[in-house]
Amino acid sequence: MAYTINKTDGTIVASITDGTIDTSTTLTLFGKSYSGFGELLNENLIKLLENSASTAAPSSPLTGEIWFDRNTNRVKVYDGSEFKPTGGAISQAATPTAPSAGDLHHDTDLDQVLVYTGSEFLLVGPVYNKTQTLSGWLIETLASSGGDKVVSSMYAGNVRVAMLSGSTFTPTVSQTGFATVYAGITLNSTLSAIFSGQTTSATALDVDPTATNTSGTVIAGKNFLRADASDTTTGAITVDNDTGVIVGGSQELEIKISSNNVILAQTSEDKNFTISTNTSGTQTDRLAITGSSGAMAITGDVTITGNLNISGEYNSSSSSVVNVDDAFIKVNTGNSEVDAGLIVETSDTNDARLFYEVGTNRWMAGEAGNYSQVIRETDATTNGATGQGLLIKTDSSGIFTVAGVEMSAVGSAIASTDTSDTTVPTIGQVATFGNLWGGSAKTVSTSNPSGGSNGDFWFVRES
Description:
mainly beta
């Protein structure tokens, strides 16, 4: 009668006739009255004891069968498709195939452990692989005078970059870059490490460029000027570059430096530049430059210490007369002596001048290079006979004296009918008139005059 061999779940594994064996599984099954069954039975027991220990997996395993893999010296169980480790991680370089949720994989290339979630392997640890060396957070205990302190150290490439601590303390065992560990995050001082990114607030900022972190360079956050709102500073502001300061919604005003020269510029096209002051409570434009023309207007008194050099012309919009309050106008100040005075431009370009001539110490006036002395009262005399060549003036009695008077011919010959003509006659005219009586000539001579007219007189003078 044949044996029917069933699995635990009732599934038939094999039907073995009498006197025969079945090798469809890892164990040898034998039928009724099979001779030599004792040896096979003992071998089956040994296989069960050693879990089929071998370098090769059983060729006909059943689901749930255990196999000791002599290659890895690990116990594995058959899940219906492959033998899997029964505990710990699968230690190999390649990612395991057909894993089950919860399976662990030790990556021998990276020395990292991963767990299978049911869809993928996720890293369990460490967070760095063996080529990266120690990187990430490491919990450490450091000794201090106040007792051991637990800190969380951040490493990168086996270098401790920062410490996270719940209190401030000084390690009793020297820690490179961490003379003092502060509550919060302390950066390694030997790395010149900095925070980079954004923060919503800060109690203070260290402004020391040498990063010595002394009290004199740690400034409270409230003492920094804001860029997004109006603010006030009690200290000076230095712009240490030549591009300077730019002001205005369209950057109209520039204060900058060019070759160490200061430039104050209004950069908006054809727009004005104005300097205004509050005078007695009223805001008044004092200096106004018109952008479209470049004209400059000044309101108020102007005091100039030094020279005033004008390359253009002087124009007065209120009057054709220049009014000067001072009693004197001084020219050529501070220079060596030269002829100086007033020049009036004329239409024929031969300018008229009134000036002081240094060589003669006198005032001169004239036009086109023809200048004569301007006579003063002291330059005149009451006696032209003794002071010849000078201007004649009367004395205190209204009399002036001359050595002689010579006049050019004026008018025509004197007639007896000239009773109202005030023209000054010449000596010749007077002599001629003296020889006439009512228009008739008179002659005084020793001989008979020749010629003559009717009515002429001849007086014979004895020889």
